[in-house]
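User: Some background: our group keeps a shared notebook of sequences we're curious about, and every so often someone picks one and asks for a predicted structure to add to the entry. Today it's my turn. The entry only has the sequence so far, pasted here. Could you supply the structure so I can complete it?
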Amino acid sequence: MLERMSDLGALAVIFDLDGTLVDSEPNYYEASRLALAEYGVPDYTWADHENYVGVSTRDTVLLWRERYGLRVPAEELLAATDRRYLELARAHTRVYPEMRALLELLAADGVPTAAASGSSPEAMTAVLTGTGLGALLSVVVSAADVPRGKPAPDTFLEAARRLGADPYDCVVLEDAAPGAAAAHAAGMRCIAVPYVAEQADDPGFTTADLLLRGGQKEFTARSAYAWLRGTATMNSA
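Assistant: Of course. Here's the predicted structure to add to the notebook entry:
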């Protein structure tokens, strides 16, 4: 059992969902592959999918329409992708064990936490309910709650507002460069845990306060909690 620490002050922690709390990208890839195949794009690969990690589903379908010259309305393509994703997410979504452990430590200390994602409300509900993570979070913010997705700061700023926290007191955990850039734009600190390790040199990660270049294999709840406690102490000094 991890040792519990205290004196976290005004700290609030905001987690990205997909690729950070849960390994949902395989489900998103399969949903995207099936939806695009239905509309005449039969050769969508995992390498193609990696280009959209950290981009909201809504923004992704807009990029698809441009890249593949699709005439299908964006809302129809979004609905087709979300429908397939929900089927997969409800069947199984893997939680990163160390992320769950960190959430449990923060909950035990009364630290307010949020999930802030570019996913739809339905997708977030399916994942958070199915994995039980929803019970550990104070606030949930989806793509439908803000006018702009990441790398704009809107998602994280809305999460801070709902938490009643000053952005200065917030730390974001993110797996994608657009999310790290969004955290910086929001005036928040960031722990970056790249989902695609080869993207660790992306300029979006340069503003991260802590970059774990090896991704989830380098992340532990104990070390992250110690880092959070250290930064909280410095802020309260």
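Suggested note for the entry: The chain has nine helices and eight strands. The radius of gyration is 17 Å.
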